[in-house]
Amino acid sequence: MKQAWGALGPAIAIALVTVVAGPASAPNGGREPRAEVGREPRVDAAALFNAGTDALSRGDPGRSVAFLLAAQRIDPRAQDVRANLAIARARAEATQGSGERERTPQSPGIALSTGEAWWVAALLALAGALTGGLAALRRARRGLFVGGTVVLALGVLASGWLLLRAREERRHPEAVVVVPVLEVGPAPDEQPRSPYLLGAGEEVRLGRTRGGLVEIRVSGNAIGWARRSGLWRVADAARYTPPSVSR
């Protein structure tokens, strides 16, 4: 019995830490992005979709991609969001004549929002801990105990992977170019060189900041510095939704 409790206690402790700390470690606590202007109500995927579709109809691929990416983060299974995002990306590529873009890789299988993924990982860990612990207490077949341990390990590993993604988003947030042409060049104190030119709708990652400049990262590498005003962080897209489409 002592050995059983010895196995059950740490397993439940690990699962509870995953359940409590996991979703809280996600950006915005695993919730949808909120508009940060005054005390406006939360902007949902429908409002972001409408804003992105309006921008697409105006021929503004940069803002359209930003809004639709934010909507996809909230509701990744929405077919209309995915369809319009594909159209916006295609128009941005056609304008620039290039398909080399920084994109978040799409995981195979069921598409989950960030909050949903955190809770699935946490519940896996808790279910595995309870299954393995009860199997140890009741001295059930070894297969049940091993199965619970495997499920617990899967939940903990999934939480670790999500935590790494959340930290990467905090360090290098995803952003979209929203001006027709954005020059990416060296910082003022660096050796001069020819700038890179990014077009509206280009998806990049942001790094360090210097005044009105921000470091631009593509495929994990820093390529130079650009004006912060020419980019929107995807996580901040909700604050740019017009009052007519926010709820």
Q: What can you see in these coordinates?
A:
The chain is of the alpha+beta class and 247 residues long. Among the domains are: 2-30 and 113-171; 175-234, SH3 type barrels (Roll). 50% of the residues lie in helices and 15% in strands. The chain is built from six helices and seven strands; from the N terminus they run H-H-H-H-H-H-E-E-E-E-E-E-E. It has helices spanning 2-25, 45-57, 61-74, 79-96, 114-137, 142-171, and strands at 174-177, 181-184, 196-199, 203-210, 213-218, 221-227, 231-233. The strands form two sheets. A five-stranded antiparallel β-sheet has the order 6-5-4-1-7. Strands 2-3 form a two-stranded antiparallel ribbon. Strand 5 (213-218) and strand 6 form a beta hairpin. The radius of gyration is 22 Å and the shape is elongated. 36% of the residues are buried. Residues 29-41 have low confidence and may be disordered.
Task: Give me the secondary-structure topology.
Elements: H1 2-25, H2 45-57, H3 61-74, H4 79-96, H5 114-137, H6 142-171, E1 174-177, E2 181-184, E3 196-199, E4 203-210, E5 213-218, E6 221-227, E7 231-233
Antiparallel strand pairs: 1-4, 1-7, 2-3, 4-5, 5-6
Please write the string of helix (H) and strand (E) elements.
Answer: HHHHHHEEEEEEE
**Major sheet size, sense and barrel closure:** 5 strands, antiparallel
Summarize the amount of helix as a percent range: 40-55%
Structural class: alpha+beta
* Radius of gyration over C-alpha positions, nearest whole angstrom: 22 Å
Low-confidence stretches: 29-41
Q: How are the strands of the largest sheet arranged?
A: 6-5-4-1-7
What does the overall shape look like? elongated
Distance between the termini: 56 Å
Portion in strands: 5-15%
What is the residue-mean pLDDT, rounded to a whole number? 79
Count of DSSP H/I helices: 6
Give the total of beta strands. Answer: 7
